[in-house]
Automatic annotation (TrEMBL):
Biased composition (Basic and acidic residues): 343-354
Name of the molecule in the record: Septin
Species this protein is from: Limulus polyphemus (Atlantic horseshoe crab)
Major subcellular location class: membrane
Gene name of the encoded protein: LOC106464886
Cellular compartment(s): Cell projection, Cilium membrane; Cleavage furrow; Cytoplasm, Cytoskeleton, Spindle; Midbody
Amino acid sequence: MASDTARQFANPEMPGYVGFANLPNQVHRKSVKKGFEFTLMVVGESGLGKSTMINSLFLTDLYPERYIPDASEKIKQTVKLEASTVEIEERGVKLRLTVVDTPGFGDAIDNTDCFKSIIHYIDEQFERFLQDESGLNRRNITDNRIHCCFYFISPFGHGLKPLDIEFMKQLHSKVNIVPVIAKSDALTKKEVMKLKRRVMQEIEENGIKIYPLPDCDSDEDEDYKEQVRQLKEAVPFAVSSTTQTLDVKGRKVRGRLYPWGVVEVENPEHCDFIKLRTMLITHMQDLQEVTQELHYENYRSERLAGKAVPRKMSTGLSEKERIIQEKEAELQRMQEMLAKMQEQMRQKQSDDSRQATPSPTNAPLPQSD
Ligand code: GDP
């Protein structure tokens, strides 16, 4: 009996083996059990193919009941933010993916203020996280902070528009921006290269900091190094997307069918769709780390330095907690008022007594109690 137990807990074939080499497996098991959370934001003018790309990236229909407003509605429209969450499972690993769409971006006649609501939304998620972190139940915090923002650039211009530059400038210290050239099938290979060069040049000239893919460690394997090199080279990713599957010479491919041929979205010779997906999946952890260590820390230190919570920002408290907080604040106000009134009465009493008993000269001062 005793020897059975000994065999269960020790490894007689490997004396001196403590077993902490197994720690990574424990972390892995725990993470798989808990699942992963990721929030992606997509920004860009309507019609650039954002919804199509999100649906094709994650092979899901994230917007089953989408309503597209007509031009007259768009004139009055402000940017609305809509979060849709899906739980995707692949080989037992669960991913809770939230995609935040920004319909109305760039649609109005005057777009001066159209990124204000996006900044507000990002800050609100940081604030909620900050409140949750300092609350009682820190274990089960849902992380809704934006980990990555795909910024869609039109393929029809000659580079970035003033709106693109202004958006990225205002947001680059709050979120990981990944620039994407939309509908790249509208351009020839040469035109894509030209537009990419132009966009990168303008990004640099304007001091915009897009998400930097991390450098590889020297001991990383060669295939991985090559993959990262190609990903870095592909920025801004020029993508085409579709959710349609076609039959091309006996092969099932996801592609866009034109009279002159098929654009295969998952073919790296045709576009960067697969590179963008690889970037997102292989760097999900890094995108989360940069969000936590850079963007969230920026927000946190600003808040600790006394910057006020943005106006109308909800604090992430439940209705019950909010009522309790309000009652506590009211109680404190009443206590302060009471203390003030008591002080005034004491003052008045001592004044009255001084007037009632005229003190002879050189008489000792009244003793305070
Ligand atoms: P969103 O408003 O940015 O979400 O754009 P949608 O995803 O609704 O796409 C608008 C239109 O563009 C639809 O007719 C799509 O079929 C089309 N579309 C989407 N992706 C692409 C693409 O990669 N290339 C081309 N040429 N058209 C696309």
